[in-house]
Specification:
Strand content: under 5%
Number of domains: 1
Distance between the termini: 54 Å
Structural class: mainly alpha
Largest sheet: none
């Protein structure tokens, strides 16, 4: 493996474990879970414990597990793309990367059991997709269409629906909430594609069919932008139809801001993918929260559209 070599160790340092679990990636599912909580319309007074536990499960546990699993099964790709990552650099010695992925999986299931059937079921599904995304024989990430769809579902839709269901005592969330969760999951496919631009070289060398590899950088950038923009446009129309024009306007403004940033991104997608992730995705998730507050303001608690 190519990379910086560190002194041989029998076990990893805590700093290497923290880097393996990538705390910066925990934000999207934690945010989506919080959006589901808001969309449920249920008062937080007696449910703060469930909210804290759910946010912990969504981010530092299930999402962190997915990062550990991905780093272990991507260690050869990372040796090309990111040789300073804990495993290829040697700071995560032996099979410790795999051991941590297994330990975090079991810990996630233990914590999820305290959230009732919905919380536990969602954790099982999320963990299954995390392993299926990175690990053979499925290794969904080899196909950018399927892999990004799995990530989008876990990071946004599943977390949103779980937050709403847990707050409602395990009841099925309102159909409007399910629709918004689905739309933002579709949009997250584009967000996941943005993450693939930084690893085109290694992905191509190791046979990982990300969208930039499959479609080329420019076409993949266009697909990512369309995947993010169209679902949000549908959200705006839905909020208007549900009698929430103020919240629809907020989401619309967030979308207009993204469209302006997208024009800049599309001129040099390889160079500006990280930049767009930092600014465009922020507007995307703010729109998510606004749409969740629209459901709360509308008092939508029953099933049906």
């Amino acid at each position: 493996m190519v990379g910086v070599r560190y002194p041989t160790m029998s076990r990893p340092q805590l700093s290497a474990v923290a880097e393996l679990l990538k705390p910066i990636t925990w934000f999207p599912p934690m945010w989506a879970f919080a959006c589901g909580v808001v969309a449920s319309g249920v008062a937080l007074a007696d449910r703060w414990g469930l909210v804290v536990l759910g946010v912990l499960l969504a981010g530092p546990l299930v999402c962190a597990t997915s990062q550990a699993v991905n780093d272990w099964f991507d260690r050869h790709v990372d040796a090309i793309n990111e040789p300073r990552r804990p495993i290829p650099s040697g700071r995560m010695p032996g099979r410790w990367g795999l051991y941590i992925a297994i330990i975090w999986t079991l810990l996630s299931l233990v914590v999820a059991s305290a959230l009732g059937p919905w919380g536990f079921g969602a954790a099982v599904l999320g963990l299954a997709l995390a392993w299926a995304y990175s690990a053979p024989p499925l290794r969904l990430k080899l196909n950018g269409w399927w892999g990004n769809a799995a990530c989008g579902l876990c990071y946004e839709g599943l977390a949103w629906v779980t937050g709403a269901a847990v707050m409602a005592g395990g009841a099925m969330p309102d159909a409007r909430s399910l629709l918004l969760a689905a739309l933002y999951s579709i949009g997250a496919h584009g967000i996941m594609t943005l993450n693939d631009f930084k690893s085109v070289e290694g992905d191509r060398a190791m046979g990982v069919g990300s969208l930039p590899v499959r479609l080329g950088v420019n076409r993949a950038a266009s697909v990512a932008c369309w995947a993010m923009a169209l679902p949000q446009a549908v959200v705006v129309l839905a909020l208007v139809a549900w009698g929430q024009p103020l919240h629809a306007g907020i989401v619309g403004l967030m979308l207009l801001g993204q469209l302006g940033l997208m024009r800049h991104f599309l001129k040099r997608p390889s160079e500006r993918a990280v930049w767009y992730s930092g600014f465009g995705v922020l507007l995307y998730v703010l729109g998510m929260l606004a749409s969740a507050f629209a459901l709360r303001a509308g008092g939508f608690s029953g099933a049906g559209l």
